[in-house]
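FORM 7B: Structural annotation worksheet

SECTION A. Query
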Amino acid sequence: MKIKILALALLISFCSADAVNERIFIEPSDLKNLKTLDTGKNIDISENDLLIINYWASWCLECIEEHPYLIEISKTKGFENNVYMLSFQDSRENALKFVSEYGTGNINYVVDENSKVAIYSGVFGVPETHIIQKGEVIKKYIGPISISDLQEIINNYSHLTN
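SECTION B. Predicted structure
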């Protein structure tokens, strides 16, 4: 029992407010070496003023649930080229099947080889959605986004789109 209490206390200390509120920046070089899921072509998204990056996997049931909301954001004026879904800890084959089955909207599907961007962004699991402005993660949605999250993104960040 004492060991469990000690373990819990250690866990809580690691999750202090300072750690949760720490500002996270993504290096522009990490956003230059991404590859599209469908063709494997290199893309550079480091110049985008605003990015919506969703980390997902084909085996994730919550990712399937939130996918229509991400499609909706990608079709919203100003967000057409700002929504990226980075396949996280998944095979290219399974990710392509997911995209084929659930649709694309105006979403850019990207492979995050070795999960480099995800690791630097502090991703713990899927689904997770980050709003990134000029390389800084300014908002995180941990877990699936909802219809109210969709409205919040559109209302609060549309003025930042290119």
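SECTION C. Observations
The chain has six helices and eight strands. Helices lie at 2-14, 17-20, 61-74, 92-102, 116-120, 147-157.

SECTION D. Sign-off
Analyst initials: ____
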